[in-house]
UniProtKB/TrEMBL annotation:
Residues 352-586 form the ABC transporter domain. It holds the Pfam family ABC_membrane. The keyword Transmembrane helix applies. The chain crosses the membrane at residues 26-47, 67-87, 152-171, 177-195, 254-279, 291-311. GO terms for molecular function: ABC-type oligopeptide transporter activity; ATP binding; ATP hydrolysis activity. Residues 27-320 form the ABC transmembrane type-1 domain. One of its GO terms (cellular component) is plasma membrane. Its main location: membrane. InterPro entries: AAA+_ATPase, ABC1_TM_dom, ABC1_TM_sf, ABC_transporter-like_ATP-bd, ABC_transporter-like_CS, P-loop_NTPase, Type_1_exporter. This is ABC transporter ATP-binding protein. It comes from Nostoc edaphicum CCNP1411.
């Protein structure tokens, strides 16, 4: 446990564990990468053999196998060279293709797994993190891993192979000279470890700064209309400038250390080269080495030491990749706070029971306190109250967007924590005040969640939602692109499409959270007529500030400070002369 590499939390080991399904491909790539480097080094050995062949002739190494003719010996060397270069090219093609395909596959799998896991996390996770930071992980960090697997992994393997092959050859053929060539390597290796240790936190900071600037850009692009309306372009440009400058400074700190490494390594490499040149030459003069072996050593010593110079680039890639791996694996390791149950709902009647529920957002004061509410199948209720009274929280808890801290919520007598999340949410249609439309056509947005719906079913839902008339006036009608978040449509148009989307889903339980807040009075009246038909034989919960929306509900519940303080039909609540009556007088202009 003393070494970070032996820790099970080390990002490299996490990455290798994640790639366990691709081990055959990884090992094949590793073998051909090593083989390619050995074949790449082989011509250097053949140069030494060729020099000895020309100098020693019938006493050369090749002559010992029976070929004494110099022409034959050189022909053998030429043929070996041709074969080695051919197999080197083939092995390079194989390992390069394997690593690249593995990089693309891992990139694909990691992105899908990370995104799938992200979708399983609770809403509070997203409320505590910026969209830009999450996008940075899903895009930049995973792309960084792809670049490392594409070329960095092979570079590391070939570096190690070069050191072992060349260093081992030196010890075998010239043990007296080898130490002078190898002396610099421990210093270079030690320096590399120190370099790695100091560079790691700098690149972790670079990744963090990249997330910050992505968050700023994503947030500003989403709020571009607000920026323009407040003429805040210069202010926002300065904020982006500040984030970008912080990112640049962070990169500069990493680059300053990385750039200093290469010149330092060069000085040490020169020392090893000079030592080999000098002491190797003395060995030849004393007949301890052949001319060919000396020529080989002077040539190959650079192949031994210069890879250490490229170690800075290798470590640079490695540290960037490990910083990205930590962030990606950190996302994948995030526990799911709202796990799915295992029970299904084959036929939903629509009975909903909130039984003494208590809830607070992340340690804040309770939003709901021992609240109880029992809805029979087919009930049509309204919920009203001041902002912050807990109305929308109530329905979000029913959808299990958040988890209650006390009590239980039952659907058809089953605790929703026991139900499969997909089963629970499929039986609930939700129209929120903040309507979200996806970039796509009007028809695609209405059919979202009901992907097998026919064109006639989409049109029928649009008519019930009072959306068909304005859709037919659009340039391409149901094939009109709505833009990102539906920005090409008005608020009222977006809301009517959302209502049509919920109608097409045909859920046993329907939630209307300020569903008509963005429409005019005429459209609201038309939607009310449609809702009278839509809400038949299904449990409906309508949350509204505009009391005209819910005045005909079977029962109206008034919430205040996380509790139900009044309940009854419209007329009964007016007669009580309480909170509801006060709200009604304000909205109807009666003071």
């Amino acid at each position: 446990m003393t070494s970070s590499l032996t820790s099970k939390n080390h990002p490299l080991l996490r990455l290798l564990h994640y790639a366990k399904n691709y081990r055959p491909q990884v090992w094949t790539a590793v073998i051909f990468t090593i083989l390619n480097k050995i074949l790449d080094l082989a011509p250097s050995y053949l140069i030494g053999v060729a020099v000895d062949t020309v100098v020693q002739k019938e006493n050369s190494i090749i002559a010992k196998v029976g070929i004494t003719n110099i022409t034959g010996q050189l022909a053998i060397l030429s043929l070996l060279t041709l074969l080695i270069w051919t197999f080197e090219s083939i092995s390079e093609f194989i390992y390069d293709r394997l690593w690249r395909n593995l990089a693309q596959t891992m990139q694909h799998e990691l992105r899908i797994d990370a995104y799938s896991h992200l979708q399983e996390l609770e809403l509070s996770y997203f409320e505590e993190r910026s969209t830009g930071t999450l996008l940075s992980i899903l895009n930049d960090d995973i792309n960084q891993l792809e670049r490392f697997l594409d070329s960095g992994a092979a570079s590391i393997l070939q570096f190690i192979t070069t050191i072992l092959a060349v260093g081992g050859s030196f010890l075998l053929i010239a043990p007296n000279v080898a130490p002078f060539a190898i002396i610099p390597t421990p210093f270079i290796f030690w320096g590399s470890l120190v370099f790695q240790k100091r560079l790691a936190p700098r690149y972790a900071d670079v990744r963090d700064k990249a997330g910050f600037i992505n968050s700023r850009l994503a947030n500003n692009l989403s709020g571009i209309a607000t920026i323009k309306s407040f003429t805040a372009e210069t202010y926002e440009r300065d904020r982006v400038l500040s984030e970008s400058e912080a990112y640049r400074r962070s990169n500069r700190q990493a680059i300053a250390l990385s750039a200093a490494f290469y010149p330092a390594i060069r000085l040490v490499v020169v020392i090893g080269f000079i030592a080999t040149l000098f002491f190797g030459g003395l060995a030849v003069a004393n007949n301890q080495l052949t001319v060919g072996t000396y020529g080989f050593m002077v040539f190959i010593v650079q192949r031994l030491l210069w890879p250490f110079a490229s170690l800075s680039n290798i470590m640079d890639q490695y540290q960037r990749a490990m910083a990205s791996t930590r962030r990606v694996m950190g996302l994948l390791d995030t526990p799911i706070a709202i796990p799915t149950g295992n029970r299904s709902l084959p036929k939903v009647r629509g009975e909903v029971h909130f039984d003494n529920i208590t809830f607070a957002y992340n340690g804040r004061t309770n939003v709901l306190k021992d609240l109880s509410l029992h809805l029979l199948p087919g009930a049509n209720i309204g919920i009203v109250g001041a902002t912050g009274s807990g109305k929308s929280t109530l329905v979000k808890l029913l959808l299990r967007f958040y988890e209650i801290q006390g009590g239980q919520i039952l659907v058809d007598g089953i605790d929703i924590r026991e139900l499969q999340l997909g089963e629970l949410r499929r039986c609930i249609g939700w129209v929120s005040q903040d309507v979200f439309l996806f970039h796509g056509t009007v028809g695609e947005n209405i059919a979202y969640g009901s992907f097998d719906a026919t064109e006639s079913e989409i049109i029928h839902a649009a008519k019930l939602g009072q959306a068909h008339e304005f859709i037919m006036q659009l340039p391409l009608q149901y094939d009109t692109i709505v833009g990102e978040r539906g920005q090409k449509l008005s608020g009222g148009q977006r809301q009517r499409i959302a209502i049509a989307r919920a109608i097409l889903k045909d859920p046993p339980i329907l939630i209307l959270d300020e569903a008509t807040s963005a429409v005019d009075n005429e459209t609201e009246a038309a939607i009310q007529k449609s809702l009278a038909m839509i809400t038949q034989n299904r449990t409906t919960i309508a949350i509204a500030h505009r009391l005209s929306t819910i005045r005909h509900s079977h029962c109206i519940y008034v919430m205040d400070n996380g509790q139900i303080v009044e309940q009854g039909k419209h007329e009964k609540l007016l007669a009580m002369d309480g909170i509801y009556a006060s709200l009604w007088r304000v909205q109807s202009g009666i003071y």
